[in-house]
Amino acid sequence: MKVSTMKGGAADLASPGSAAWNSVVGESVSLGAIPAAAQPTAYIREAWAKRAYASTSSAKVAAVSDGDRLYVRIEWPDDAKANGEFPDGAGVVFPGAANSAVETLGSASAPVGLWCWQAGRDEALDIESRGPGVFRRQAGDGVKAAAALAGGKWTVVLSGPAAAAKGGKLGVVVWNGSNEERAGLGAVSKSWLGLEQA
Amino acid sequence: MTETAAHQIAWVYDLNKCIGCQTCSVACKVLWTRDEGEKHEWWCSVNTQPGLGTPKGWETMGGGADPETGAPKVGHQPTREEFGGGFDFNYYEVFYGGTAGKAHLEPQGSRENRWAMNWDEDQGAGEWPNSYYFYLPRMCNHCTNPVCVQACATGALSKREDGLVLRDEDACLGDRFCMEACPYKKIYFNYERHVAQQCIGCFPRIEAGVAPACVRQCPGRAVFVGWLEDETSAVSRLVNEWKVALPLHGEAGTKPNVYYVPPLSPYRLKEDMSIDYEQPRIPPEYLESLFGPEVHGALATVKGEMEKVREGGSSELMKTLIAYKWQELLGPFTRDPVELTPSAAG
Amino acid sequence: MRPMQATTKSQQVYTGTKDLYRKKWTWDSVFWGTHCVDCYPGNCPMRVYVKDGLVFREEQSGTFGTIEEGVPDFNPMGCQKGASWSQSLYGPDRILYPLKRVGERGEGKWNRVSWDDALTDIADRMIDAIQEQGPQSIVHEGTPEMATVIPTNKFFSVIGGHGLDLNGSINDFSIGLYETFGRFSPVSSADDWFNSEIVLIWHMNPVYTRIPFYHFIAEARYNGAEVINISPDVNPSHLHADVQVSINGASDPAFGLAMVQVMFEENLAHWKFIKEQTDLGFLVRTDNWHYLRQTDVEAKGREDQMYQWVPGTGLKLADRGNIFLNGTEIALEGSYEVKLANGSTVTVRPACDILRQQLNERFTPEKQQAITGVHPDTVRMIARKVATKRTNIMLGYNACKFYHGDLMERAQALLLAVSGNWGKKGTGIRCWASGMHDGAFIAVNKPGPGAANTEIVLSGRDAMIAAMKATDPTMTTEIAVKKMGQISAMTQRSRFRPGRTGDGDSGTGFMMDGTSSPPAFWWYWQAGYKERWEHEGWGDTSLPRTFKEYFDEAITKGWWQGMDHPRPEEEPRVLIECGGNMLRRTRGGKTALLPTLWPKLSTIVSIDFRMSQTGLYSDYVLPAAQHYEKIGFHIPTPHLLNLTFSDKAAEPAGEARNEFQIYYALTRKIAERAEARGLVEYTDSKGEQRQFANLPDAYSMKGFLLDEERLADEQIRDSALAGTLPMGTNLRTMREKGHVRFIDWGLSPMALAQASPIKPNETHVPFRDHTERGHPFPTYSRRAQFYIDHDWFIEANEALPTYKPNPKFGGNYPLGMTSGHNRWSIHTMNQGNWVILGTHRGEPDVVVNPDDAAARGVKDGELIRVYNDVSSFKVRARISPTVKPGQIVSYNGWAGFQYDDWSGANEIEPGMVKWIGFAGGYGHLSHLGAEWQPVPADRWVPCDFEKVSEVQA
């Protein structure tokens, strides 16, 4: 995926509905489930063994840098069902090591970084993930998120230090809150998406 | 993975002393849950049994573990609506809004499916004149097999050396598998801070030698606290020696460390209003559903010792339950908090 | 879809959970505190924790030692209200600034005004009232809490205003106990409950109302006691009882009398106890059913001198000075011929003989079952136990609120008498009493500050008591003090007017240059109750005459002389509610008072720390300091026998001031406005002149009362000088210890009424002076009096305890509404506390039986209208099988503004007083502050309910 650079448009880029995104070409990303057997606790494995999750099959991803910050836009169709206790969410995944796996959201030895947005939550989270749902908040600052729900579609922009892109690839994760998806139950990129400077 | 605690702090609630006054609940609330997003949280709460309690219908929400294999059992995610409460009130409108009585002070929001921590207070069961109920205080059971710890993906929960199950709220990301797994449904979600929260066992007080607020502030003198492994402690004697203090829903398999002396109740009345001395009005089978088959022996012991004293005898069990000196209830945590210097507290 | 609950609030920043929680439990300073309101017994010593100048929480102190070995201690006294009191300190119902009504009364529109503007207007209205109607047209109702009653009564004393006897308004007056014992206030210390073998919970609900003391009942049970709960509904206190006696509403006297019948029948009665302690051995004439009197037999001597019958010897003058018989046997049975001074012969019988005939005719266990629904076997079982075991009747202030509550209590007292159950540990009955902190009142009423002035008061009151005793050497101190009080109530003039703590009269003398009266007359003449009490069909059909005939006779005979005010022409003009809450408290509420009393009042002022129902209908609401913001003491009580100290932990919030400062500022403003208006003096109701310019100094005792620390210190020291606190007790020692046990009773009637020594290492049990020393009772007969031969009682067939059905005050309806204090508030105090509101449904309800609800198509939580002939109110239904069919339970304490139209349950209460409660001119049936007076009934109010259809918003 090409990452274009736009100088001076930071404020606009942070907004999902901004015209600044009109010229940015995104890519469709195929999403899948992390198998129940790979979930980190016996409880989660038991509870979700026979339950469908990762219900979002694909998302559209685009990225722009302004030199300092990287902006990643994720779009996917909202599940029209009412949310119960859990919010919809989305995240951008970056490799934390050379051999980090996006499709499991990292592992104990090869973590991934995760910028995370949740509906109804002001702050975005900067997380280190060592497996599905094995998340830990990082001290890292500067991750921001903004979201819009329109026409049955979520548009979320997550942004953070441009250095995050230095691994040259990213992935995404989408949680359908109405299906009680959270932690390792979201729909995750099946493979890394390579980044190239436009 | 569960570590076996070197010590285990345990509570014993004597349901023959509890009067449902909610002082434990309120003491806990005023001390710990007054901040953002905590209004509906009652880490300690008292419900009328039989009843639906808090969250509404918690006894049928699943969770826990298979007592044999330890395998987790799937539970329901208790909802904000099922917990209820945390109401906002229209004070300003009533006092200063110029409505001349058209607005009165009442909880705001929809009445549909409204519920609260103590919604079914004193409603009870049975038919007059044989209606009945009793009070059941509940808090985190600081289980020996804490399924919440096991269910958590982020490792936010752990069991300490003193046996308390504590949460690192920084590590909690609000995924709430713990809430599903807990068979007692005594974990709350803070929707403002996006973390789950539950009883912290008043660990800052315990660390300072001061009894937990629910114990030290119980005017009914109905709660004992102490080390379960200490054979001389009141909690150990009540649980292990006399076997009159029983876990609640032990079949949930989590090995809870809050125990209950089950309630006696007045005799039933017969059709002609005469007293049926053979039957307590709380059905024993109902108590068995809460405290297991051991409840019958526990009740027989309490009643038997009580009879012994009535006939002029002496009973160590009765003396223990009386707790002539208040400090006897506090186990080793007898320190008066004002002895702590302000800066040393906590 | 909907997003999760959105938040715009900032996220809390913290470095670690554990440190966060450790930090939460830190503080800057700690103070002693308690909740100086009309929470009785109250007196829970708390530690109040302050951080950044604000109170952030409180916790029970747990600092009581053991009083008596083998009896549990008092720790940790407190309840959920006390444990969250801090949350009402800065709560949304707190009044922070003076408020002036704009728009109509009760419209709910206010302007914030300055203290100066508010006081100027109020002072002008008061001066107007003084000029138009005299200072007695400035009235207050008050509250028992000392922190408001002392400054309030001082103000009314200084200006010559008029107070209503509070116990008459709230009706915590146990008439039946009073009729029997000559005082209504025997109170064991709560730890003595532990010593009981039988606990009869009867017209009390300690699970709700005695949270800090309930453990003594539970522990007594573990100590071998049996607990028996007697109530129509399976009320919360059934919980830890062995036996629940489900009794028909208002039928209790029959149940009690049947137990007495069993004791007599089975020869279980304590005959010696009956003969000595009671009047049941006194002879009654069978021609006119009056006692046989010395004046009958000798044509001279005392009219209140009665006789006993000694078999073989004949008449014996009943000793008025000592009740012991010292081995002399007297008759309790039989009939005897006595020759009278006029030469005629009359047949006399011991009162006991008449009683037993009545019991056998009407109140066998079998016959009582038709009245009470209680099985005869249950009556016999309990009677046998009570007769052989130490029995304590846990009586609340509930029976006294029934129309025939006196008959209930008289039956209870009789049960104790016949079973020998008073004057020893683990026995007795309870109501309420205060007193002991005599210094609190001496200090504010002595000629000036300092111990020398205290000595003047103390020697003065001792001399007056000695003088009174000299008129009749058989008087105990209690009887002498009581007699002086009754005389001064009649004259409204005495400078020695012993009263009680709650009335502001400490029993310490030098009080009240104002006037006060039982509120019954106020209601009748000023508040529209004439129509209610004379209402056809609501009255007492057991009596041969109409209400008006009884009332007029009482006035004509001068039984209430000096107290039968305000007359119709003596309209009130200014009402000051300071801690009181008339619209919530008065039976009838808005329905009764707004159309009748309110229009007469030019100004209504509420001085309070929170908005109340009365505040909403006032002209001004002035912000008072809350309990943690001023030095105070709780109403002392024999339940605990401690003086409990409450310190000033924080500055008053907003512009709130303590009451002394408010009243002082008002006296200054009155003086200032009077001067501006060219006024110098006025005449009070006694014809004495008062100078406007003198009011500020008279009020503040030249500034003494405004020095909070000094005043508190002198109050404590004065109690030590009066002998009720250990010598050396002062403000400093109170700040160290927080509470201190009283060593003596002092001179207030309710304290003296305990008639027992305070023993340092023992529980307190009243009436030991009677059982151990033979002291007489302060009744007409000088015995526990079960035969009241007042003409009205004889006419009513109530000379002896009996049973009568509840009158249909409010109309002929199928249901009876009962009440009782709730669990969640102290009256309305704490109803607005957000923490407490979270412990229940957050709004009022009434509890109804499922069958009654189903018959009216009502489901749990639905809105119903409860109605009778008087009025109606709307409330939610809580359905519970604990309630007896035909009963609805409206626990009280909700604020009016928590109901639709701000109309609460008291709106349907007609406030009927027992007609023969206007009796007087008979020994102890004579008014003394808080005691003998007509009081309103509000239990088992006839009513019905219907579903209200709601449109869901």
Can you give a write-up of this model?
- The complex is a heterotrimer of chains A (198), B (346) and C (953).
- Chain A is mainly β.
- Chain A has 2 helices and 14 strands, in the order βαβαββββββββββββ.
- Chain B has a single domain (9-86, 114-339), classed as Alpha-Beta Plaits (2-Layer Sandwich).
- Helix content of chain B is 23%, strand content 14%.
- The model of chain B has no long low-confidence stretch (mean pLDDT 96).
- Chain C folds into 3 domains: 99-172 and 437-454 and 491-624 and 650-747, Rossmann fold (3-Layer(aba) Sandwich), CATH 3.40.50.740; 188-430, Dimethylsulfoxide Reductase, domain 2; 815-947, Barwin-like endoglucanases (Beta Barrel).
- Helix content of chain C is 31%, strand content 14%.
- Chain C is built from 33 helices and 32 strands.
- Chain C has an 8-stranded mixed beta sheet.
- In chain C, α6 packs across α15, α9 (252-265) crosses α14 (376-388) and α9 (252-265) packs parallel to α15.
- Chain C is globular, with a radius of gyration of 28 Å.
- Chains in contact: A-B, A-C, B-C.
- At the A-B interface, α2 and β8 of A face α4 and α5 of B.
